[in-house]
Specification:
single chain, 8-stranded parallel beta barrel, 9-stranded mixed sheet, globular
Length: 463
């Protein structure tokens, strides 16, 4: 394809407008391993490959946009988390990040448990053979039907999120002649995101039962009195995209204080503590996430230290990584369409997807990286905004990044670290067809979630 020169937005750092970007990398052809999955590289043609297959061949077979998931990387991350925490702890993959039956089978084979937060996620897990006892059920407003199904199949734990739910679960369990294992989710007054955390006054949210005012302690009293419940521990979750362990330290201290209060009042030492998920990944080269063994060491030390100070036996720890496992394992492949240079600002690069396959930029102002992957280029860096094809000005995939100045219609570009929440939150806005998820491993690629078709849209439209 001919790549004729076209007027472009600013290319030199001294004339760039303010934005969400760092200086352009020294070489746009280099794929930073921090943000790409482990088998991604470039072949001798300069084409990016994953699992030994070039993106040009993948685009030809599966079309664009599409999510390509590095199965070897996913499995390796599962093993790393399992090995880091060992047999004396539990790792629950957070299914909300991305769930399919193939994912469930991989989790089962690699020894991880699974947490779900809806009847649909539970059905998917069970249909793919995940043992019910290895499933935790979350959610702030579980329906009676969801609770009944969970108790009937024997999920390993239900995380209680309100006073009303304590009664609902107990009633369902008793009506079925069962005793359901439960944890109580407490709001510990800690909010953590990225490198910052707020250690006070974060009870203003829909999740959990607040420690403040003795509400969590009252929830424990009620749960311990009900025959249909077996209270096994306390659950807390403090935020998302966390790189710093300081928030976990404050949270663990407050949870352990509650465990000590429970012991002193009821003569019971609850055997488990779940510290939730929210561990961060690298979306850009500026991000610096911790490795699973570092996280495990830090969390184990924090809990052991706080329990020793409180005179408690160290409880069994659970964690719930979702994004930290699946996020880095996938990228979204797009084909470039319209290119619009705005003199003195930036160049808009439109792709054949958008907010229907990645809503996170619009929702959270999330930052992503992007690379030209169908070829290499020696052109100078050009500031771009990668946008979709939807009828919304907020339809932005990558707000500010650099691509070679000769990027042209027909080129393939890819956004890494899109394994978490992109397909899970995908929509049919503008009647877009949700992209497929394709697993790639050892030179073979297979669809694990197929692309939607227009027939799928019409099948639901009964008008």
């Amino acid at each position: 394809m001919s790549r004729s020169a076209h007027p472009a937005g600013p290319r030199h750092a001294d004339v760039l407008p303010e934005g969400h970007y760092s200086a352009p990398p020294a070489d746009l052809n280099v794929l930073d391993p921090k943000v790409w999955s482990r088998t991604v590289t470039r072949d001798e043609r300069g084409v990016t490959t994953v699992g030994g297959i070039g993106v040009d061949a993948l685009a030809e077979e599966f079309g664009t946009p599409a999510y390509f998931l590095d199965e070897s990387d996913f499995r390796a991350r599962c093993r790393a988390w399992a090995e880091a925490f060992g047999k004396d702890a539990d790792v629950f993959y957070a299914g909300k990040a991305f769930l399919s039956r193939a994912i469930v089978r991989w989790l089962k084979e690699e020894g991880l448990n699974l947490d779900v937060c809806s009847g649909g996620e539970l059905t998917t897990a069970l249909s793919a053979g995940m043992p019910a006892e290895r499933i935790a059920f979350h959610g702030n407003n579980k329906s009676e039907e969801e609770i009944r199904t969970a108790v009937e199949v024997g999920v390993g734990r239900i995380v209680l999120d309100s006073f009303q739910e304590i009664v609902r679960v107990a009633h369902v369990a008793q009506s079925l002649g069962k005793r359901q294992r439960v944890q109580i989710r407490v709001t510990v007054g800690v909010e953590a995101h990225t490198h910052e955390f707020i250690a006070t006054a974060h009870e203003d949210q829909k999740f959990g039962i607040a420690l403040a005012g003795g509400q969590a302690a009252e929830a424990v009293r009620r749960a311990l009195k009900l025959d249909g419940l077996e209270l096994i521990g306390i659950h807390s979750h403090i935020g998302s995209q966390i790189f710093d362990m300081a928030g976990f330290e404050v949270s663990a201290r407050r949870v352990v204080q509650l465990l000590a209060e429970v012991r002193d009042e009821h003569g019971v030492e609850l055997p488990e503590i779940d510290l939730g998920g929210g561990l961060g990944i690298a979306y850009t080269s500026d991000d610096d996430p911790r490795e699973p063994h570092e996280i495990a060491k830090a969390l184990n030390e924090i809990v052991a230290r706080e329990c020793e100070a409180a005179g408690l036996a160290t409880p069994r720890i659970s964690v719930e990584p979702g994004r930290a496992i699946v996020g880095p394992t996938a990228f979204t492949l797009y084909r470039v369409g319209t290119i619009k240079p705005l003199e003195g600002l930036r160049t808009y690069v439109s792709v054949d997807g958008g907010m229907s396959d990645n809503i996170r930029t619009a929702l959270y102002d999330a930052e992503y990286s992007v690379s030209l992957v169908s070829r290499t280029s020696e052109a100078e860096p050009m500031l771009v905004r990668v946008v979709g094809k939807h009828c919304e000005s907020g339809d932005i995939v990558v707000r500010d990044a650099f691509l070679p100045a000769d990027v042209a219609p027909g080129d393939l570009i890819a956004v890494p670290a899109t394994g978490a929440y992109c397909r899970s939150m995908a929509s049919n806005y503008n009647h877009a067809l949700r992209p497929p998820v394709v697993a790639v491993r050892d030179g073979e690629a297979r669809v694990i979630v197929r692309r939607e078709t227009e027939e799928d849209l019409l099948r639901l439209d009964v008008g």
